[in-house]
Amino acid sequence: MFQKLCTGHILSEREAYALMLDLAAKKLNDHQISILIGIFQTRHISMQELNGFKNALLELAIKIDLHKPCIDVCGTGGDKKNTFNISTLSAIILAAAEVPVAKHGNYGASSVSGSSDILNYFGHRFKSNPAELNYDLEKHNICFIHAPLFHPGLKNVAPIRKNIGVTTFFNLLGPLVNPANPKYRYIGTFNSKIARMYNYILQDSNHNFTIVHSFDGYDEISLTSDAKVYSNSKETIVSNTNFNFSKLQPKDIYAGETIEAAAEIFVNVLRNEGTQAQKEVVIANTALAMNCYYSNLTLEECIARSKEAIESKKAFHLFKNIIDQ
Description:
Elements: H1 2-6, H2 13-24, H3 30-42, H4 47-60, E1 71-75, H5 86-96, E2 101-105, H6 115-121, H7 130-140, E3 142-146, H8 147-150, H9 158-164, H10 169-173, E4 184-188, H11 192-203, E5 208-214, E6 227-231, E7 235-238, H12 259-270, H13 276-293, H14 299-311, H15 314-324
Parallel strand pairs: 1-4, 2-3, 4-5
Antiparallel strand pairs: 5-6, 6-7
Helix pairs in contact: 2-4, 5-13, 5-15, 13-14
């Protein structure tokens, strides 16, 4: 399959599946993996290729059986915007607001502060034992699923991705390959084409999902521009006015250049001491994710519950308990 790809062939779903199995079985060396990544840097991945890669990774993943239905809040990353950790904050706030969360995450390949980076900075110990993850879910209403522990077939890819230091097609797979296979998905994409692909792929699944893409390239609701939102039943466009929030500027949601700067924003938002802009962008994403899980609630009710979880300090105390355990 690798040879066919190198000659300009667009893989079928079955061929993409077979190629990913070859990669996981270490039938491709580091140079070939770099070439594979390079090919998808120069052309768009097809929906068949994305689906084939996804199916292979899910088959190879170490499975997790969680004891209650959860939502994953996950972005592709790779938008080159260097925002603070909005999706990880949303996950914690959702858990504090009585929405069970199975947060899939990884180290940033092209940023200083991926989901796993920020949790690792605060000393969270990632777990690979399903019993421990279920314990966290019961105790805290959230568990953090660190991707490298559950996708051993990609162990040889991680250092190559880190050395390349740019967004690759592996970013596009992350939100689709949570090994717990949670029924509910809130996914952000930096690319409108990928958002449409996710929509087609998830329409053929049994998941309840919301996919968001901001028109100015953020992989979340940024409040800096309008955004496209896909769900099981409809496609809509939302703006800051849908949340009754102000329009933001990129500098309002910028993380800074270091993990320390991102961590300071992270804690300040949880303490309800962040800026109004930081608070509102987190609430907007949290509310849409909550609305995906609790479809019987209105968006206004989800905004109010998300806001209360921050202002009551429930989210901060939950995070403190997670870190201190």
